[in-house]
Amino acid sequence: MSIGLKALRGAIWTIGSSLIARGLGLIGTLVLVHYLAPTVYGEVADASVLVLSANQFSTLGVGMYVVTKRNEARAAIFHATLLHFLLGALALAFAILLRQPLGRYMHAPDMGPFVIGLVASVLIDRVSFVPERLLVRDLRFRAVGLGRTVGELSYTLVSVGAAVGGLGGMSIVWGNIARSLLRAVWMIGANHRRDWFEWGPIDFKRFSEIARYGLPVALTGIATFAARRWDNGLMSHYFGVGMGGLYTLAYNLADIPAVQVGEQLTDVMLSAFVHWDRGQRSEALRRSLPLIALVMFPLGVGLGVVAPTLARVGVNDRWIAVGPMLACLSALSITRPIAGALGAHLAAAGRNLTILIVEASTAIGVILGIAASWHFGALTACVAVGVVFALRAFALAAALARLEAVPLGQLLGGLAAPLCACLPMVAAILLWRNFFPAVAPRFELGIELALGAVLYPLSALLIAGPSTRDLIALGRQAIAKRAASKDQPL
């Protein structure tokens, strides 16, 4: 089977399994917040920022090393595994030591117990990280998708059960530990142990080689993480831990399409790009961006337009301010998947310094945007975050056009039609909401979702016909290949 078809099937597997898992996770989160106050949720979120920051600072690009250095011997992978775990353990120890002063800065002085529990969860993740990256490297996306689904399901069941049992914020911590444990068992079990941890003599030159390769990647990862996570702590600092909790929930909801669909596509594209030469990568990117837009734009735009109704249905009065925040932040699911695909191309081409500059600029932009919004309110900060991420996508496209000689018009021109195809859906939902008799919120949400589900495919065929037919043809080709493989004799 060609690399392209493997990538397409991988995208179908990872996106499908992630949507199922995240759908369950979304239900669990909406149930969970009924038992938690925004201040408690904000404290757990701030603890998560600290622990995950320590985790990110100690990653050293090991994941990218494992995926892109696909011909390395087992000894190299063993050294990557050992280095990844030891650096993580050291950094997480510092996170425990810093929990009190940083808790005071973020107006979350009681987050200490959450930090310790989340450290345990992340340590488990450090063990399963390289086995999972090996599965991605080998294009075994079915195993990756199923493992992530099992982990998300366990998080939902454990966190909701613990919240119902009265454990408060620790219910989220126990959910994270359960997710990490089950994912670790799954990912490790899907690999041969010797492929990722065949003990041998320690070679410090190997560590040095991994560090030299991974340092630029790690710096990029830190900048990307800062842009996506430090805003939670900043919102708590500037607007209070309760508002930080509201913002975190809105951001997490807005992030669902970007993470569960967009990031899965990025994983698949990076794994495929490293197998292709420059010309093949450029053609694949030019063709895939409109297809990504066809999938992601209606999710992001639709989420933004139904956000007020979703808040009325999904949360209680303590959380109702999530609706306007979600409407502003839904822009993330429009621009971030496009940026992820562009970044995958640049990474496969070795343009790590360019990615680092863009991601660092994004992090600085988010920090300055939230700080500048202090006197204007939290909604202004949400708008600022959305604008910064839109500028990030454009900056990556401009850099790719200049460095890889790919015309900017070819990269971004195909995005206009999928975006315009969303307009009839938005117009119909707003017309229904404002000019038809009011109904119960849950029925209103169902009607709004149905309008989007019916109108967008029709408008996509009319407005973005070539890309829509291309997406349908690729799906049929993947199904036909799957059926043909089943008919082959054993």
Beta strands, count: 0
Classify the beta-strand content into a percent band: under 5%
- Radius of gyration over alpha carbons? 22 Å
**Helix count?**
21
* Separation of the first and last Cα atoms: 17 Å
Mean pLDDT: 82
Strand-and-helix sequence, N→C? HHHHHHHHHHHHHHHHHHHHH
Oligomer: single chain
Helical fraction equals over 70%
Helix/strand class:
mainly alpha
Q: Return the domain count.
A: 1
List unreliable stretches of 5+ residues: none
SSE inventory with pairings:
Elements: H1 3-32, H2 38-57, H3 62-68, H4 74-97, H5 99-105, H6 112-137, H7 141-164, H8 170-189, H9 193-196, H10 204-239, H11 241-273, H12 278-314, H13 322-329, H14 332-348, H15 352-372, H16 378-403, H17 408-412, H18 416-420, H19 423-435, H20 441-463, H21 465-487
Helix pairs in contact: 1-7, 1-11, 2-4, 2-6, 2-10, 2-11, 3-6, 4-6, 6-8, 7-8, 10-11, 10-15, 11-12, 11-13, 11-14, 12-13, 12-14, 12-19, 12-20, 12-21, 13-16, 14-16, 15-16, 19-20, 20-21
Keywords:
mainly alpha, 83% helix, 490 residues
Characterise the protein shown here:
The structure is a single chain. With 490 residues, this protein is mainly α. It has helices at residues 3-32, 38-57, 62-68, 74-97, 99-105, 112-137, 141-164, 170-189, 193-196, 204-239, 241-273, 278-314, 322-329, 332-348, 352-372, 378-403, 408-412, 416-420, 423-435, 441-463, 465-487. It has one domain (3-421, 464-484). It has 21 helices and no strands. It is globular and about 75 Å long.
